[in-house]
């Protein structure tokens, strides 16, 4: 048995080596397929780490409270579907801030967001209007480049002050100083009291392309609403997140007169950063595997190419098969010979594909890092095993039919073949 | 009694069309004989050789090879029997392309039960047919006569009981052809059974016995008393 196999391997390799150009071209389909699987898995993992890194940079000890209940525990709240829900108020946010309600909460920021045009003299600029409470600095780690953020008093008494994001400052004022200037938003005049430090895009949100307005001012003068879009709160320690979520839910249910403690009737949704990470991981994983499956399809195409070439080889070598049978090769010898040949092609193609794919993914990672992304080069053992496994299976499956065909040839028919 | 054939018939069926090739042949071949099976093309001599060489099966009749009823043997058993007891020499050599002379001769041994000293055994047979200096040549680098000697070496390497030579001189110039006949005669002299298939009377006359076939039946089975002896350099008429 062992002898038969070594004999077959030897014969197969000799046949492959004697026809290098064709072997290589046949292999190419597998090389590209496996390479694509490796690259997609690596790039997917790199992109995933980038996204997760961004989300983590938002703080894993942050919880978010959104208006509207969610049908299932992990599902998105209705407010994420573009429906405006008015159940969350400024007073809710202030209640959460009280120690007796949630003692592990450090600070709270309430948001009502919108878009609008900010103008200064003849200059105007369309940007994001972020109505928020003074807790922004503490919760979101906001840092100021110039001036100051608005105070709790300014937040409450409808003060017409704004803090600019660095992009807005540059667009409106260019080189001239922005501090103390008056800008117009929706016919109302605001004094610029501060400019935020440049922060870039974090978790798909451009912090620099925003104007920060005291929440009450935003609600009354600009948005004309009484409700909040979002509350974000900072927890003193990650270990206390569960406790804080419970406290927040209790407080809000009490304030909203919700008796049902199961959560089914909640008109708000509380999510932690960790939960968001889980959801994002699930989504990006699905995407990654979907793309890998698409790449694996090209392996199928490569496999069909191999079957095609092997069928040609069987026809071309009919006389050789006849001769081998005449000198004593059994059916299994011929079968193994051709099977090993196709497996050797796919396996070798797979190995070249893995190496090529790894090099390519590494270059992509280098390029991304060069462009300033925190992109990790991740080559998982999983994707290598997948590639090797799939390519050998492709070799066996697509080699089986030609190999069987070869082994079933009658020796005399094969010898007579011209 | 190495070969015992009784009322052997063979017919081919192709899309319902039946072609009868052999119409009931009977003969016996003993060990150590040198038999030429002669006949014009289409007489059925090659079909007969294929059946005798266990490459094909008879449609009817009895064929015993080395005491075994061939009809009862499986394809793999036939393969093992060919490997252990039969050597073939074909008109068109049938050597593996892009493969060395030595590897070609080793081929039957790679399928054999006993795989000891394969290289050494192949080398020795090649030396016996005068090709000791061509071991590492590829088969496309040697002459036709040398190719046929490689084929003979391949037929001999497993020490067969019988050698089938199907028009072995058909593709060769006369000098090379005589060399091949000389080798076959020498093999027979040291005890090998040789079956030669040919359509040429001259070539057939190198055998000790001629079985003449025409249209699938034996028309003559005679012993040659003073057969031709091939000497290197003799020319065919």
Structure description:
The complex is a heterodimer of chains A (418) and B (237). Chain A is 55% helix and 17% strand. Chain A is an alpha+beta fold and 418 residues long. Chain A has a six-stranded mixed barrel with strand order 2-3-10-5-7-6. Chain A has a two-stranded antiparallel ribbon with strand order 8-9. Chain A is elongated and about 105 Å long. The two termini of chain A are 33 Å apart. By secondary structure, chain B is α/β, with parallel strands linked by helices. Helices cover 31% and strands 28% of the residues of chain B. Chain B has seven helices and ten strands. Chain B has a six-stranded mixed beta sheet with strand order 6-7-8-3-9-10, sandwiched between helices. Chain B has a four-stranded antiparallel beta sheet with strand order 2-1-4-5, with helices on one face. In chain B, a hairpin with a 2-residue loop joins strand 1 and strand 2. In chain B, helix 3 runs parallel beside helix 5, helix 4 packs across helix 5 and helix 5 packs parallel to helix 6. The radius of gyration of chain B is 18 Å and the shape is globular. The model of chain B has no long low-confidence stretch (mean pLDDT 91). The chains are: A alpha+beta (418), B alpha/beta (237). At the A-B interface, helix 1, helix 10, helix 11 and helix 13 of A face helix 2 and helix 3 of B.
Structural class of chain B: alpha/beta
The class by helix and strand makeup of chain A works out as alpha+beta
If strands are numbered along the chain, what order do they take across the biggest sheet of chain B? 6-7-8-3-9-10
Radius of gyration of chain A: 33 Å
Assign an overall shape of chain B: globular
Question: Can you give the mean pLDDT of chain B?
Answer: 91
Give the tally of β-strands of chain B.
10
Oligomer kind:
heterodimer
State the order of secondary-structure elements of chain A, H for helix, E for strand: HHEHEEHEHEHEEEEEHEHEHHHHH
- Note the beta-strand portion of chain B: 25-35%
Regions with little confidence, pLDDT below 50 for 5+ residues of chain A: none
Strands of chain A, total number: 12
User: What is the overall shape of chain A?
Assistant: elongated
What is the tally of helical segments of chain A? 13
């Amino acid at each position: 048995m062992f002898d038969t196999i070594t004999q077959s391997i030897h014969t197969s390799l000799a046949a492959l080596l004697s026809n290098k150009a064709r072997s290589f071209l046949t292999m190419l389909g597998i090389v590209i397929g496996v390479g694509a699987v490796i690259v997609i898995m690596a790039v997917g993992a790199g992109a995933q780490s980038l996204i997760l890194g961004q989300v983590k940079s938002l703080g894993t000890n942050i919880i978010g409270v959104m208006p509207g209940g969610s049908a299932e525990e992990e599902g998105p709240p209705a407010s994420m579907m573009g429906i405006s829900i008015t159940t969350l108020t400024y007073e809710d946010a202030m209640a959460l801030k009280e120690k007796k309600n949630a003692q592990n909460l450090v600070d709270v920021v309430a948001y009502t967001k919108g878009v609008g045009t900010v103008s200064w003299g003849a200059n105007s600029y369309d940007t994001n209007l972020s109505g928020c409470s003074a807790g922004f600095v503490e919760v979101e780690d906001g840092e100021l480049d110039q001036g100051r953020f608005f105070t709790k008093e300014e937040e409450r008494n409808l003060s017409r002050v704004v803090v600019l994001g660095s992009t807005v400052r540059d667009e409106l004022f260019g080189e001239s100083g922005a501090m103390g200037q008056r800008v117009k938003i929706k016919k109302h005049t605001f004094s610029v009291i501060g400019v935020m430090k440049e922060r870039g895009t974090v978790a798909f949100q451009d912090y620099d392309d925003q104007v920060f307005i005291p929440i009450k001012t935003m609600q009354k003068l600009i948005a004309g609403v009484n409700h909040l879009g979002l509350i974000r709160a900072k927890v003193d320690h990650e270990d206390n997140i569960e406790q804080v979520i419970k406290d927040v839910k209790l407080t809000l249910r009490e304030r909203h007169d919700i008796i049902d403690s199961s959560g089914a009737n909640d008109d708000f949704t509380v999510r932690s950063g960790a939960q968001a990470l889980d959801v994002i991981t699930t989504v990006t994983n699905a995407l990654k595997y979907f793309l890998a499956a698409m790449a694996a399809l090209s392996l199928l195409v490569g496999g069909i190419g191999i079957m095609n070439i092997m069928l040609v080889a069987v026809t071309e070598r009919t006389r050789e098969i006849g001769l081998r049978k005449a000198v004593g090769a059994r059916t299994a010898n011929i079968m193994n010979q051709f099977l090993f040949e196709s497996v050797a092609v796919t396996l070798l193609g797979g190995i070249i594909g893995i190496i090529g794919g790894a090099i390519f993914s590494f270059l992509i990672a280098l390029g991304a890092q060069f462009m300033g992304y925190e992109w990790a080069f991740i080559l998982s053992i999983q994707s290598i095993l997948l590639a090797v496994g799939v390519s050998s299976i492709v070799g066996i499956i697509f080699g089986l039919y030609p190999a069987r065909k070869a082994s079933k040839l009658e020796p005399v028919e094969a010898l007579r073949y011209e | 009694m190495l070969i015992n054939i009784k009322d052997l018939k063979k017919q081919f069926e192709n899309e319902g069309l039946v072609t009868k090739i052999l119409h009931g042949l009977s003969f016996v071949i003993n060990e150590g004989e040198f038999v030429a099976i002669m006949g014009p093309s289409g007489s059925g001599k090659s079909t007969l050789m294929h059946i005798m060489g266990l490459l094909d099966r008879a449609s009817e009749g009895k064929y015993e090879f080395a005491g075994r009823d061939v009809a009862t043997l499986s394809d793999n058993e036939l393969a093992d029997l060919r490997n252990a007891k039969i050597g073939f020499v074909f008109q068109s050599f049938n050597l593996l392309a892009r493969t060395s002379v030595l590897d070609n001769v080793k081929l039957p041994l790679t399928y054999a039960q006993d795989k000891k000293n394969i290289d050494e055994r192949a080398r020795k047979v090649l030396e016996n047919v005068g090709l000791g200096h061509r071991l590492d040549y590829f088969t496309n680098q040697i002459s036709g006569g040398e190719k046929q000697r490689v084929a003979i070496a391949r037929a001999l390497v497993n020490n067969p009981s019988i050698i089938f030579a199907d028009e072995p001189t058909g593709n060769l110039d006369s000098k090379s052809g005589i060399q091949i006949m000389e080798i076959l005669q020498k093999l027979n002299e040291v005890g090998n059974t040789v079956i030669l298939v040919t359509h040429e009377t001259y070539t057939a006359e190198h055998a000790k016995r001629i079985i003449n076939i025409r249209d699938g039946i034996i028309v003559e089975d005679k012993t040659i008393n003073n057969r031709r002896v091939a000497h290197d350099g003799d020319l065919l008429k």
